Amino acid sequence: MRALVYAGKGRMDLVDVEEPRLTASHQAKVRIAMTGICGTDHKILAGKLDVADVGTVLGHEGVGTVVEVGDAVTHLKVGDRVVVNPTQSCGTCRNCRLGAYCYCFNFDDHQVGFTLAGTFAEYYVGSAQYLYPIPEGMSWRVASLIEPLGCSLNSVLKSNLRPHESALVIGSGAIGLLCQTITRRLCRLTVATEPNAFRRDFAAGVANHALHPADLTPETVAELTGGRKFDVVIDAVGNQLATALEVVAKGGRVVPMGYDDTYRVEVAPTRLIDDGLSIVAAVPVHDAIGPALDFAADTPALADMVTTEVGMPDFRQAFEATMGVDLATGQAVDVKAVKAVIRS
User: Fold this and answer.
1) Which residues pair with 192 in a beta bridge?
2) What is the pLDDT of residues 61-116, one digit of tens each?
3) pLDDT tens for residues 9-25?
4) What residues have CB less than 8 Å from 290, skipping those under 6 apart?
5) In the CATH scheme, what architecture does the domain 149-279 have?
6) CATH number attached to the domain at 2-144+299-343
């Protein structure tokens, strides 16, 4: 079968690999319909996140149709449409026994699209317990957003955002826009920032205000928040924690959500203590899929976020449109998409 395989920093190749088959009674086989390109996939190719093994099929935001089930599988049948939950675990270490699956001591060995074969492929085989039925009437495009929506939903909820508060979401890529969609429902004011004009225009239809980062001045923050700053600030980029700490209100919470292994920032503990600030980094959750399916069921407009859809042979086009980087030369190009999906 065809699959997109990680070939080292900056490289992903479309190759023929052996089609996976069931090897245990608790597994199911899925014909993948499409897989969303995650910011994590961007960071892997850019060398900013060292989590994938060379030779591994990438992709972890996969959706598709069940074509085979093992004898022990009872909650799925052939023909069911499903979302793949890529966040898996060993189930037997101390943390797993305590229910902290996302902090599994063997976590790195159980991640779809990083160390386990992912869903940028025609077929996926894995434990059926990590497959979630897609509600009738939900489009493939909305379903492809369920995994990142679940991550975003959990991050916002962990911030303890309340209806009378304000939220700033730094970055308006897919994760940032999903966070904005959620905070817009939950609080009185949502402000977005984004340097790219295409994405900033899109964010203007989601948040109350969408600004270029250069326009996030102390005067503008004061005007938007009534002089208070923001109660919750979410860094959906991965390298904006310093900015987040500058604009968060006393008693506020900062959520570092984007991933960038190369980023470092100094934090003064006395500032955290004196201003009563919390940095909420414990945002992973093992079951992000179930809550996201319920949330998305009443939000069909999420499909509008998928602005690019291509087949596997055109994967470079989709990556470049969302990364803003020419994969062949490494040169910057205009970002021309919000969310891209690859059809298998």
Assistant:
1) 169, 210
2) 999 999 999 999 999 999 999 999 998 999 999 999 988 888 899 988 898 998 89
3) 778 899 999 999 999 99
4) 132, 150
5) 3-Layer(aba) Sandwich (3.40)
6) 3.90.180.10
